[in-house]
Specification:
The protein is an alpha/beta fold and about 250 residues long. The chain folds into two domains: about 10-170, 3-Layer(aba) Sandwich (Molybdenum Cofactor Biosythetic Enzyme, Chain A), CATH 3.40.980; about 175-250, ACT domain (Alpha-Beta Plaits, 2-Layer Sandwich), CATH 3.30.70.260. It has helices spanning about 15-20, 30-40, 55-65, 85-90, 100-110, 120, 155-165, 185-200, 225-245; strands at about 10-15, 40-50, 70-75, 95-100, 125, 130-135, 140-145, 150, 175-180, 205-210, 215-225, 250. It has a six-stranded mixed beta sheet, with helices on both faces. The radius of gyration is 22 Å and the shape is elongated.
Length: about 250
């Protein structure tokens, strides 16, 4: 009997009124979830919350106890509504002040002291005990507090920050996936699909309808950590679909 899979979990918190209002489209969740998956870290929750101190503090304290890792994006810029760093400090019960190394990096970056304005200096503030997360794009760093990583909201910056710190993460067994595409509608395949899921409780089976070439299509995605089990379940699924006179085309991801 094989050893149980090592599961490492994460939560992504997107912080910002601009996301909730619809003004700004978030792309950080998709990027982080994809990259974390490659490292064997399974994103179990994603939340979008407003720039309200009590909400941020309470949410951070909730999820940092619930998941192995927490990643926050947004709210560490130079303006008055950038309150994430202060909220993280409050969540951990520590003070916050300018980090000497952050100040040194930003001083070198801006060169002219007049350009390193008081507003920009706010981005050098880090909760006490925080470890800097490098920012190869615009220098002002993110930071790590225990299992909580705080990134900027700008996608290119958040992506660069993640790449600079991902070596700090310890993942579990990577989640593998296989996709089977069929022309049979969900209403027809729902019952046999449910039966298959009961036989393979260790595999997550999802059904995603769409239109391809103007015709109905369903992608059936099987996810799990045991490739041999995935192969068997996928073969059984394809045989079932073909037995119903449907198409069954496999894609491996």
């Amino acid at each position: 009997m094989s050893d149980p899979a090592k599961v490492v979990t994460a939560c992504i918190l997107v912080i910002g009124n601009e996301i909730l209002s619809g003004r700004t489209r978030d792309s950080n969740i998709q990027y982080l979830a994809t990259e974390l998956g490659k490292l064997g870290v399974q994103v179990r929750e994603c939340r979008v919350i407003p720039d309200i101190e009590a909400t941020v503090v309470a949410t951070v304290n909730e999820v940092r106890k619930k998941f192995d890792y927490v990643f926050t994006t947004g709210g560490i810029g130079p303006t008055h509504d950038d309150i994430t760093a202060d909220c993280i400090a409050k969540a951990f019960g520590v003070g916050i002040s300018e980090h000497p190394e952050a100040v040194a990096r930003m001083t070198r970056h801006y060169g002219d002291p007049a350009l390193f304005t008081p507003a920009r200096r706010r981005m050098a503030r880090v909760p006490h005990g925080g470890i800097l997360v490098d920012n190869p794009v615009s220098v002002a760093p993110g930071f790590q507090m225990e299992n909580v990583f705080t990134f900027a909201g700008i996608p290119k910056v958040a992506e660069a920050m993640f790449q600079s710190m991902k070596h700090r993460l310890v993942g579990g067994d990577p989640v593998l996936s296989r996709t089977v595409r069929t022309n049979l509608p969900e209403g027809i395949i729902a019952e046999p699909l449910g039966a298959l899921q009961k036989r393979y409780e260790d595999i997550d089976i999802g059904s995603y309808p769409a239109f391809r070439g103007g015709k109905p299509s369903v992608s059936l995605v099987l996810r799990g950590t045991d490739d041999a089990r995935l192969v068997v379940a996928t073969s059984e699924l394809m045989a079932t679909l073909r037995g119903m006179n449907g198409e069954a085309e496999e894609f491996v991801a």
